[in-house]
Design brief:
Shape: elongated
Order of helices and strands: HHHEHEHEHEHEHHHHH
Number of helices: 12
Number of strands: 5
Structural class: alpha/beta
Length: 248
Amino acid sequence: MSDELERMWTEEFRPQTLDDVVGHEHIVRRLKELAKRPDMPHLLFSGPPGVGKTTCAEALVNEIYNGKPGKNVRRLNASDDRGIDVVRHSIKTFASLMPYDGARFKILILDEADLMTSDAQNALRRIMEQYSRTTRFILLCNYSSKIIDPIQSRCALFRFPPLDKEAIIGRLRFIAEKKKLDIDDEAFEAIYIVSEGDLRRAINTLQSCAALGEKITKDVVYIVRSYAKPQELEQIIEETLKPKPSFQ
């Protein structure tokens, strides 16, 4: 496999600015407004995987720091660092330091925040209160219901729905054109079906299909994803719903 195919397209084609974000127009507009405010609140991004939460967080950071966040931004994943010790030491240490290079504030992006323990969330809430002058938190989660109310009440909540068909296929076409892929419309439709609104999954599927080194068709997509074709699912449902013969 070539070096070109070995690179993750999800990272290669990740939007760097809010203007480049696919879909979520109303969210992007609000984030642009917040990026200009010196009193930007803590943010809570909630929604299923692959719908743009991390992308929007990173694009917002680039907007605030003009593409040069440097030491003013730290990223943690709560699935790895979810205990109270991490909050009391690592997160608190970062939050307590003054911003660098004259920045208004620092930003800590905490992914999968809904995996944090209750004790860790309570400790985090106190840090968010104590160091709001120096640090803003962007919390990313799949389920906002798993975030304790005291944290939710201190954040501006953004709910990210699954991306629609137009947004996903539009982004896939953009990548296919850049990569000079031989792909037809039915294949784009198939990728959208198997992605279920998850743009990251859609792009990974496109890259996996491209790695086979042949024309990308809907059949290639379903084989790569080990996914039953819609016609096959319809046949299974029809067979299941047919009246069963009675035996005397």
